[in-house]
Amino acid sequence: MRWVKWFSEIGIEDVPLVGGKNASLGEMRRELTALGIPIPDGYAITAEAFREFLRVNGLEARIAALLANRQRDDLEALERSSDAVRQLVLSARLPDEVAAETLAAYSELCSRSGAPALEVAVRSSATAEDLPSASFAGAHQTLLNVRGEAELLDAVRKCFASLYTPRAIRYREDMGFAHDFVALSVGVQQMLAADASVSGVIFTLDTETGFRDVVLIDAIYGLGENIVQGRVGPDEFYVHKPTLRAGKKPIVRRKLGTKELRLVFDRAKRAHDNRPVPVEDRNRYCLTDEQVLQLATWAVAIEDHYSRKLGRPTPMDIEFAKNGPTGPLCILQARPETVHSAKQRPTIRVFEVTGPGRVLLEGLAVGDQIATGKARLITDLTRMREFQPGEVLVTDVTDPDWEPLLKRSAAVVTARGGRTSHAAIVARELGIPAVVGAHDALTVLAGDRTVTVSCAEGEAGRVYEGTLPHRIEEIDPASLPETRTKIMVNAGDPDRAFMLALLPNEGVGLARMEFIFAGAVKVHPLALTRFATLPPDVRRQVEELTARYTDKTEYFVDTLAQGIGTLAAAFWPRPVILRFSDFKSNEYAHLLGGAGFEPSEVNPMLGWRGASRYYHPEYKEGFMLEVAAVRRVREVMGLTNLKVMIPFCRTPEEGTKVLATMREGGLVRGENGLEVYVMAEIPSNVILAERFAELFDGFSIGSNDLTQLVLGVDRDSVRIADLFDERNEAVKRACADLIAAAHRAGRSVGICGQAPSDYPEFAEFLVAHGIDSMSLNADALVRTKRRVWQAEQRLLPAADALVSHATAPIVYPLADAGVR
Predict the structure, then answer these.
(1) Residue 407: what pLDDT?
(2) Collapsing DSSP states into helix, strand and coil, what is residue 501?
């Protein structure tokens, strides 16, 4: 046929003929079905058919005249021109040959499927679409559940007309495309019964940071249009690609979405309708773990194919659906992801909140930036003239028609939507922060006030009143020198893991388990192992939090494993050293259900904490849940870069008990490469370093507790705060002695305390003594790395400047170190 091509006849080399979307559909149908990836059949009406449509109806000159002589910033003129052109297109007839071939192919598609009047999806596919320099995402129309010849021909005209929506016109102008340069192909694809099941989108990278080692899957009930339009909050899943390839099951993160609406097709009314989702369905994931892993496996195969075909790494943006409640999952379309994949390794801009502020709203953070501006509530586009450039756009949801407003915004806040909503996608493309799903936005931000939108604090995006103090540091990773001392990062918040992993570092020297306890788990472990003993009011709260789990302890293990797994996946294959929980008894008591299981201690800082809890009969079963979570990350997810560390281990005998308790839980030092470290934060750890070295693979200096205990200073006491100083000679001698003793025993030593970040001279002292690594907070990483390099240049022999600490330790001159 002249004007129609079946998907099996085309590939990604045919973008000029059938546009980016259809070329990609053809590529998958032709090349990937053999790999077992199901892709619904269909065909493309070519771009040449569109041009023939314009020619036969004499539309080229009339369209050009309507789009000319208009001020680009005149939004009302843009609307008028768009309306006039689309009316021309919609009132024109399809050429007879084009219509005949379209209907003949539709008849053949019906015959192949066994349905006399098959429902199809009719998708626009522009010839300048899905290019590395331009995406046109969401600019053109897709019509679903089209059935019958008359509906099909009408849908084709509507797709043709969508080439002239305001957003499409403006986008072409912004990208430098002449209007007559871009043509439109139309894809006709067998429709799946997703309205009775699930659908969603897949990205083969993290859409917030561009981190490429994960697959992100968003899923909802019903048709996927609700995700794109941001009408519902989807379930969210992250799968780690490297260990998925190795045959593991690395779902490192799940987040339950609100899924409040299901878009269905009412076949009696021939119209789509959003219907409420029952609460019991909203409160469970709409995909099983097996389905998530299947989708991720297909996504990786699709990415691999496109990367080979295009000759470069090619992250993908993929749509999927399930064909009814009992039917199979299928891939609907895929295109190269054009926002992050087109970027070179960027200059790192680190946004950091530096002062307090009053939080007005919270939602999901999109991006990792901070912006300040006047909040402007726009509920519909008839009020667009009220919006001024640089303001913060506040609205319910956005669609492609809102793009001109978004381009003028400092930030956007929506009351509804998820990470793959229209507002989120466009905000990423424009490089502005967005807070989506902030439910009370339309009432809280209804007044005329200045706000700060912060998406630099993890998963939660926050809207603050007024101007929030913050700073921006721009970092060129290539400009940072290599250091002999390993520079690692402290991490405890899984929400920030992918962003932190992009910073120049050699892994995580301290991952604090208690951060995940407090932020995600929220329940005392014994409140789960001894659930029946809880007071009724506490039991009710725990029941509500763990409602999706029949086994209460599984809630703890699963939630903790997801947080730990996200950290380990982000830094893979670099080491991540996880410190087992180190709450004090009063801090454990603040966890839900914790008050009934914790003693009242006069000095919790020196009481029942760290190693002493792990083997104790009154906490051991809680520690075994921690061990189970670590095993799940290492064994099920395959993230063997995870190592563990024991805090506040007072004696070697106590270390032996902890290792034996871990062994009971199936976590054995040395098996499957497991390394176990010990915190060096008690004088006994220094004095008996050789004995601790027999039990553990390395040390990490906790300078805060070590300083407190060497000097006998309560670090929380205001009256003697001036005596707390890591630079004191006694503290420095303790550090120097530990490093020397550990190196004699062939063990490595790092530091994860604050001192190297705060005091350049202390960092220099540690370098002089040959410390193996420093683990720093993100905000201090770059400046401390520079200081370490400078100290190494001054103190270390030139020949040894890049020698690995894996070799035998070298003794350096200490004349400038201030010790002995």
Answers:
(1) 83
(2) helix
Q: CB neighbours of 48 closer than 8 A, spacing ≥ 6?
A: 3, 17, 183
What is the 3 state secondary structure string of 457-473?
A: CCCEEEEEECCCCEEEE
Spatial separation of the C-alpha atoms in residues 164 and 179, rounded to whole Å? 9
Query: Each residue of 638-680: pLDDT tens digit?
Result: 999 999 999 999 999 999 999 999 999 999 999 999 999 999 9
Q: Determine the pLDDT at residue 815.
A: 31
CA distances 46 to 153, 197, 639, Å, are: 14, 32, 47
752 is catalytic: yes
Q: How far apart are alpha carbons 542 and 553 in whole angstroms?
A: 11
Per the DSSP assignment, residues forming a β-bridge with 43 are 6, 188
Query: Out of 240, 305, 340, 422, which one is annotated catalytic?
Result: 422
Phi, psi of 487 (to 5 degrees): -105, 115
Q: First-to-last CA distance in the chain? A: 89
CA separation (Å) from 380 to 47, 76, 140, 459? Answer: 34, 14, 20, 28
Peptide bond into 573 cis (omega under 30): yes
pLDDT over 80 (residue 803): no
What whole-number distance in Å separates Cα of residue 310 and Cα of residue 130? 13
Following DSSP, what letter does each residue of 702-766 receive, concatenated? -HHHHHHHHHT--TT-STTGGG--TTSHHHHHHHHHHHHHHHHTT-EEEE-SSHHHH-HHHHHHH
User: What pLDDT digit, counting tens, does each position of 529-544 carry?
Assistant: 999 999 999 999 999 9
pLDDT category at 759 given cuts 50, 70, 90 is confident
pLDDT tens readout for residues 233-273: 999 999 999 999 999 999 999 999 999 999 999 998 999 99
CA–CA gap between residue 585 and residue 618 (Å, rounded): 12
SS3 349: strand
| Selection from 477, 481, 642 nearest residue 571 by Cα | 642
CB 49 within 8 A of CB 159: no
Q: At what angle do helices 620-631 and 552-571 cross, to 10 degrees?
A: 50
Catalytic residue among 735, 752, 769, 805: 752
Q: What is the 3-state secondary structure (H, E, C) of 280-327?
A: HHHCCCCCCHHHHHHHHHHHHHHHHHHHHHHCCCCCEEEEEEECCCCC
Q: Work out the angle between the directed axes of helices 47-56 and 15-31 (0-180°, nearest 10).
A: 150
At 802, the pLDDT band (50, 70, 90 cuts) reads very low
Supply 183's token pair: 């043509």
Active site residue 805: no
Type of residue numbered 41: D
Instruction: Calculate the CA dihedral of residues 431, 436, 442, 448 and round it to 10 degrees.
Output: -30
797 token code pair: 């022999």
- pTM value? 0.82
For residues 231 and 749, what is the distance between their CA atoms, to the nearest angstrom? 51
Question: Is residue 152 within 8 Å of 186, Cβ to Cβ?
Answer: no
